[in-house]
Amino acid sequence: MKLFIDSADVNKIQLLNDYYSIDGVTTNPSIIVKEGKPYLPLLKDIQSSIGTEKELFVQAIADMAENIVEEAKYIQDSLQGNIVIKIPVTSEGLKAIKLLSRMGIRTLATTVYTPMNAYLAAKAGASYVAPYVNRIDNLSGNGIQVVKDIVEIFAKSNFNCEVLAASFKNTQQVLEVCLAGAQGVTASPDIIEAFLKVPSIKENVETFSKEWYGLYGSNSLLD
């Protein structure tokens, strides 16, 4: 299963990419605006941090399909490497996904709230769909069940489209979408770092070290 960082903070991206097996980075307009930097240089800095082979997701902001397509082409021309264009699942967005699919430009359908949103996007030729797990829960829905339903629909329809679950408030939600069959997740740096925040790990390591030092007085097997 793929793991993406949902952030435009270059320092945090670099840190996580150095330590963990990250498959790429997802961004959106809100995440980019938060950094307060010119967006193309920022995206290039992100790509320098992760390398050109890993996927970088960049969202179009235009409303009309033809304009979305032009933005997608501009993004592809301006950046090197493995770029995926994020497009909201509006009617115009679905039209743009169809047009871009014919051009060989890969897309992710974002703002997915229902299985039928995902179905329409996959039919249009999207490479990924991103159901908003926690936001669905906040609307009195069931985000995990939506992911399960999308996975089942895609399997039965033989869609060549992956489920990249998004919008998490805790690691339990990430665990549950993994078990639900999602092909990937994108999470904030804080959520990813929380995967290892288990007090028992630190306690165990400290015990191992204390007992080793007590007998051998060395902090390395090489001494």
From TrEMBL:
The keyword Acyltransferase appears for this protein: no
GO terms for MF: aldehyde-lyase activity
A cellular component annotation (GO) from this entry: cytoplasm
Pfam families per UniProt: TAL_FSA
InterPro entries xrefs: Aldolase_TIM (IPR013785), TAL/FSA (IPR001585), Transaldolase_AS (IPR018225), TSA/FSA_arc/bac (IPR033919)
Record has Cytoplasm as a keyword: yes
Location of this chain's protein in the cell: Cytoplasm
Any one GO BP annotation for this protein: carbohydrate metabolic process
First-listed, main subcellular location of the protein, grouped into a coarse class: cytoplasm
PROSITE patterns with a match to the protein in the record: TRANSALDOLASE_1, TRANSALDOLASE_2
Classification via SUPFAM superfamilies: Aldolase
Source superkingdom: Bacteria
Sorted UniProt keywords: Cytoplasm, Schiff base
Protein name per its UniProtKB record: Fructose-6-phosphate aldolase
Species whose genome carries this gene: Niallia taxi
Lineage: Bacteria, Bacillati, Bacillota, Bacilli, Bacillales
